Structure formats: structure tokens, C-alpha cells
Amino acid sequence: MRGIFILLASLVSLPTMANITSFSESEVALMHTVFSQHQSDFTRHSTQARLNENQYLLAQAHKHQPQLLIRQADVGYATVFHTRRYVLSLLKNHFSDIHLPSAPKIDWSLYTKTALLAALPPYPNDNQYSPMQLTQLESINLAPLTGMPFTLAELMLEQSMQNRYKLHQGDYALFKKLIGDIRQYHHLVTSLATHLTHSGIALKHLNLIASGELLRSPMLNYFGVQSHMHGERSPYVEALKRKITHSDITAFYVKNKADFKHKSRVTASGVLFSTSQAATTFKQLAQATSIKNALKQYALKSIFADTQGKVTRKQNSQWAHQVVFSLKESLLAGPIRSPDGKWLVAQTHHIKFDYHAIDSETVRYQATLALIEDLAQQTYRQNKQAWLNTHKLSL
Prior knowledge:
The chain is α+β, with helices and mostly antiparallel strands. About 55% of the residues lie in helices and about 10% in strands. The longest helix has 30 residues, at about 360-390.
């Protein structure tokens, strides 16, 4: 638990019901420039709306997904690690024309590879340090290297599982890079302090903006308004699913019946040849006359003759049946190599369409997915707007 507290202490103060941030014109302009790089028609109004929406999403993360404030994946980097990198990128790009003094060189003799290995406890195979191990890590002060308050516990808890393992194996080059990045960040924010103030940009606001952007996607996924929901769904979305009734599915089917139209049967002819050349010669004759005439001249029998040329959806498990079932009407296709090395020439003469039954699994599944997505979007819009109205923010 102490490790969690360490990370939380490193995070910026995220918005709660009683703490809403009003971003300055300069901060909005900065982010407008950033967003416009990815979407040229992104307006200033859209920028303000996105920043406000992100505050809503952060508040909901506090309430529903607090683990995201620490890290988005157990094996990934901590959220504070990504936040610092995001802010560093913002500052570098925005103040690129300002000449800053070089960061002081780090005296690596203050903390050698030997010291690092001596300070690190045995690698935790479950990716979790014990309270005693955390206490040991917290006692190692890295401030002389980073230039800012920072402990070995914070460094290790920020890392991905892969980086943490490498550090335990004595990867001192990785250690120096990580420390160098933190030193660069501290040097930059310290050197730009006056410029930030004069520009009307607050570092804590940039941290808040970065956190909002980083948590935006996972929170939109949580509410079911961003990703396709064919895979795993959040408990929130599963709760929405339970609200969908048989009557809802029936109404959806009636309104969208055309979406449930499908091929039920085709009438086709086809021949399998042992060589591509034989199949090509047959096809050329069929093109010049008809496949029926070609079959007659070659004294061949269509592979679908036993069912009078009819192929139903239930027969669609066989390769040749799958091919003719996928063809457009009247299209003469081939030669097509079969899985067992033969060559197919085929033509679908007629296609019969039908509708999935209202009580079929296909209707239930597809209608439920569509209804969940609609309900998720509607619920999200309503809840977001109510929250924004409460805090006198706009979209």
C-alpha cells in the first residue's frame, strides 16, 4: 500500500466535485496548437470543450476507475511517468524558440551501479514490492542526481515491469537514462518558470491537461462510447446491457429489418479440374457460350447437380459451397485453386435472400450490440452534460 501512496503523492491534483480548473487563454491556445497538428480543422471552441470533457472524465476516473490514476496496466508504466513525459513534450514544443542554459551534468559517482544493485531488494516475481522492500527503496534519496525530490522507490514504482526487471539485473545504462530524463524535466520547468508565469501558463494546469489526455481513451472505453464492444466490456457497460429488454430487441428488429437480410440460397454450377489449364479452357468455352453448354460439350456434371444446383446456407461448410455463396449473381469465376489442389470454375445463377428470424441468435446478438452502443452514447451525453452544467462548464 505504501507504494500506492507514493505514486498518488506524485500525481497532480486532479479535479473533484469541488475542484474544477478554469484554463487560461494561453493554455487553451497551447493545446489548440497541439490538437490542430493531428486534426487541421480542430477549432479553439473544440479545444475548450475537450479540456472540459477531460475534467469530467478525470472526475469519473476518481469515482469509478481510481486504479487508472496510478497506472493503466499492471505491467506498464505509471500514469505519473506518462504525465511527466507529456508535459515535457508540451514545454519543449511551445518554448522551442527560447534559448535555455544546458542542464548541469550529473555526477554519476554519487550513485554507482554497485550502489544501485546493493540498494535493490530481490526482484519481486509477482511485480509487487513488500512493505519492507518499499521502506528500503524509500530510504535511497536520488535528489542529488535528479535535482528534485525523488527516491529510488518512486523510480522503481514508475517503471514498466520490463524496465523494473532490467534495473534489478543491473542495467545501469537504463538507470542513467531514466534519471537523465527526470533531471531534464526538472531543469526545463525550473528554467521556464518565469516564462510560464509571463505566458499565463501554470505547470499544475499542464499536468492536469496531460492527465486528462492520458486517461481520456480508457475512460471513454469504460463508458462504452469509443471502442467496438465485441470483446470484453466494463462492468458499467454490462450494467447497461442488463437494461435492454426483449421488447427493445423486437422494436429494433422491426425498425432495422433490412439489416438482417441475408443470402439464404443460391443456384449455381461448378466443375473441379485437376489442372489449371483444363479449367481455363473450360472457362473460355463457358464465356463464349454458357456454362450449361460447356458442361454439355465436355460431358461433365456440375458438382452441385445432386441438389439441382441449389446451395443453402446450411451447406456452407464445404469449400466449393462457400465460394459460390460469396459470388455475385451471374458472375463466372475461376479458375480458383481449392485447398486440395484442384481448380474450380463456377457460376452463381440466382440468389435468394431472406431475413433472420426475430428470435434468432443473430438478431439477438446484433441488436443487443447496437442497442448497448446507442444507450451508452445517450447515457454518456446526459451524464456529462449534467456534470458540466453543475460546474458551469460548456462544450
